[in-house]
Fold these 3 entries.
Entry 1:
Amino acid sequence: MMGALSHIRVLDMSRILAGPWAGQILADLGAEVIKVERPERGDDTRSWGPPWLPTPQGDRGEAAYYLCANRNKRSLALDITSPQGQEVIRNLVTSCDILLENYKVGGLKKYGLDYDSLKQINPRLIYCSITGFGQTGPYAKRAGYDFLIQAMSGLMSITGEKDGMPGAGPQKVGVALTDILTGMYASTGVLAALAARERTGEGQHIDLALLDVQVACLANQAMNYLVSGNAPQRMGNAHPNIVPYQSFATEDGFMILAVGNDDQFRRFCVEAKVAYLADDPLYQTNAARVANRASLIPLLSEVILTRCTASWVGALENQAVPCGPINDIGQAFQDPQIQARGMQLSLSHPESGEAPAVANPLKLSGTPIEYSNTAPLLGEHTEQILKDAGLNPEQIQTLYAQGVISSRKAC
């Protein structure tokens, strides 16, 4: 069965995480994605280890970081700083639908590989530029990284334990969330541009900034500020708009209680044998509970401490009250629900035999996700890509001799 995007060809000239994440989404959906990398070094994340995927000989293989965002792609090791490499890109662009890049503003213009130049070759090209701060504005020429953007956007100001508590202070999220969200917006943007192209016949340029994305993804916290004029503060694991919606210590660990409405709160109180709290005007409604959280949370904390996590989770699930344990990542992958959903994969790897992978969460009934290959070796598909582009063996050998391309095959 053909993938939903099996008719689409993507030139992925991005590195690190945001752009490659978008490219991987498109590749999972069936698009042909050509990953353009520097010869010899490749994507920076190839060196971002440990951990490393070991080879059968016990040698150091690919970095886990690189493997997470480059599945289902083909690798072309090409020096785009050379005139010959630039000509290869222009050749490929004639048959591509989408180009992803995350160079600094103006970084590709000096090579004649910017949008204005390439649209002259292919007016139908959808060209997505991912930068830290966008193509305009006073910070446009600055480099932007996820950690920096988490800080500047305000995300770190609402992440971490509240002031006055042990360990208080701003915290980044435990994964590069801004990069991931930007990759998702990028994939959405290029698919929207594809839909528009069906009507207009024309491609377009997408200007996507990490800072814009993270500000947009502040969601309710951004609106809390815009409506009230008060900047939200760190609250640990508590929620600014819902109570009780946080972590609690149990007899043997911790659990999450995520009460989303008044009926759930009443059912929790009945199970916890504190039904009187649900009848108290101070706690009957969510608005009242938010206003009086300082008195309510100690009462709930005291009762939740009397039972173990498994006891609470089992009992509250029977009462349709959202709750759950706080798993580490190993425990998460052992969870029967995650296993039933097939979220852990094992893919064939040309050097290491096989490589673990995390599945794409999209479950499409008509065009399901297919996993054709793990993240490629550096330059693994160089020769085939160039042959497909019309280069003959002599031309390819000349590019090798000039150091414009490189390739790597499994031993």
Entry 2:
Amino acid sequence: MNDSRLSDSIFGEGEDRGQPAGKLPDRREPAAQSRAQARDMRPFAQADNPEGPNRRNRSCLVMALASVLVLGGFGLALKTVGTDLIPSIGAGRSGGGDYAGEGTGTVEVKVKPGDSGHAIGVALKEAGVVKSAGTFASVAGANPEFSKVQPGTYKMKKQMSSQSALNLLLDPATRMSKGVTVREGMWVSEIFATLSKQTGVPVAEYKKVDPKALGLPPAADGKLEGFLFPSTYEFEPSATASEQLKAMVALGKKQLNQLGVPADQLRKTVIVASFVQGESRLGADGAKVARVIDNREEKGMPLQMDSSIHYITQKRGTVTTTDKERNDNSPYNTYKHPGLPPGPINNPGLEALKAAAKPATGPWLYFVTVNQETGETKFETDYGAHLKNVREFQAWCRNNPGKC
């Protein structure tokens, strides 16, 4: 970067124009009779049948043992099948058995959230994977690893043994769901492109979705920016654009609720968090940036943060802006308009949201990242001291062309 470019940066402007806060890069036992009870029964048996006490005693003992065996077997089935006990017994009466081997061909089977072992067995049986839902439920119930089976669509084979089917369900490679990672600080336009690339759904389909149909909180004001929560999502191959966005909104609402931010403060918190995400490397600096925003607002100073300009231009790659870009009339231009912009300027992650919800305590009004590689950031209350830090930043940029 040459000096003329740096002179266009926000850091070279005079205090009478309202000095910038700073610049940073964009960035889951059955009841049975005991021996004592059996002994206690003998006198009564003998008194009732003096002609054949031994025969009646033997009869009672046989019945007691039979009761123990039946009830003991019931307990074993309960332990093996769990809540699938009754369906499993029914399946057994209608025909059980099992295939042998690892099967042939391919078939897709969907495991739904909350499915029990028997429910999965039914889905497998209907798809021709296993011979008996009850047999599969018994095999699954006897394996402690079964609890690791996740909802999703699985590529299975036909006519598999129940054990082989379970083995495939436990193999992550069998699961066909799409894993998509949405990074913190991305714009909605970037999120659409990322989702489209990973799932194959055209970008146009995401643009057609009505945000108001996604369950957004009132604080979103019917707009997606700021409320598509960054995370790694696993979507079914058939998931529509609307279903994918709805999942992101739902997770975002859950995270926001856990922060305990009052409803009337939620929109401001998300907007501030978007600046924290765009202007800092987070850590302790995130909460300090949030405090700078609050302090400048209280003093009536414009925020003057370049991340808002980058949002307007929808351009990445630099941490500085030009005079022409800063002269844009967009309501999101924090150089021309005081206070917070109308809405968030990106989709912040949980750490940024936490920083915005609980800013650090301090009098800072300015900050600048003096080293774009290490992220070293200096905060100041005095403008003169801030200018000294700005010159350090400018020197770093001159010594590292193309990185500012």
Entry 3:
Amino acid sequence: MSTVDPLRWPAIANVPEQGRIRRRARKAESEFAYACEQAGLSLEGADADLRVLEDALFLRIADAGWLGLAESYMAGEWLSSNLPHVLQRLLETGYAPKSNARPKGLFDARATPVDLLRLSAGEGLFSYASVFSSGVPTTERITLPPPGRGKMKSAQPLGVEVTTLSDPTVVERLDQSDAQARAVATLLDMADVGTGTYLADVPAQTPAVALAAIARNATVDVMSCDEELVEELEAVASKAQGALEVCALPGPLPEPGRLRRRFDAVVSVDGVEAMDPGALKTWLHTCEQVLVPGGHVALETLVATEALKPLDSALDVLRAYLAPGWHGRSMEQVLHSIHAQPGLKPQSVLVFGGHYVEGLRLQRERFEAHQREAAALGFDAVYRRLWIFQLALKEALLRAGLLDAVMISATLQPRRAV
């Protein structure tokens, strides 16, 4: 704990020790031990699945539930040689410690630091998604009824083509770069990006999409309010011979009606899951405004399954430190949100969670092997443990069937003549 900067990490540096928390910590300890027993996780012995180094773990769990579990890991109070397995088993047993309710925040469009992308994903600089070559696609057309409740009312049932990629057969570390490039290519294919396409990447999360689109002879506008990413993108634009324009946004998303240009396609990577409901509606409305008739939207995002609902608090560490607006929407909810925009019509879905999770594993292992480089770049021990925990948590959520990964395409329908 002496190495924790209290100004940067106040919740990590200060263990909650109020009287009521201490009383609840005993119960938290017994519940955690029972959950580990039910999950088949050992706490002692040479082959222990996890080791508790400080009793502060139980004070944190008593105070903040899953967030406390994560913050205790960030503080170095417990460790595991197989963190994704431990988290997956706890999730599969339904471990859901009570915590003080913390409201979800608003989308802030923060991007992963580029240096972290390099250490986790390599020079491809693609954040999480991977599509390996060994998946077998199966396609079916599904029909979704209009939402039964809420403000979103589709006049007609929604029909969409869903392709599911089977899990990759053999995944090796050398496959990582190709799998990430294939994921970018798949997203651009779904947006019908090719020679002459005018593409908007908003809000941008990585230079990878723009670089791949330029290689297809497209012209790209990238928009972001993240200063570090904007600086990286401007360096790319200086070598792109006019094919890339960087737009620094004053806020997370463009203000509705302020964009005067029209685009053939709009893409989003790792953005939708981080958007609160208002931000998602604004983003979709912006897509509708800036697309030419017949233009395409393509997005890649994580989606929730029904089983996530009682375990949604497991995501609190993402909301607290990485994406305050993180929402566990289902694929159906995302599709209905798109369809709720008068001009947008969902066209197709690619479900590829089995590939995404293997990409996460490779990125986590790569980052774990480059922690010295991360430290040299200024990422302290707490941040490094946070990064490892969030990668392991997403991996566990996917393997436990609580999250899935999808790419969704939609088109802007031409307005009918009156």
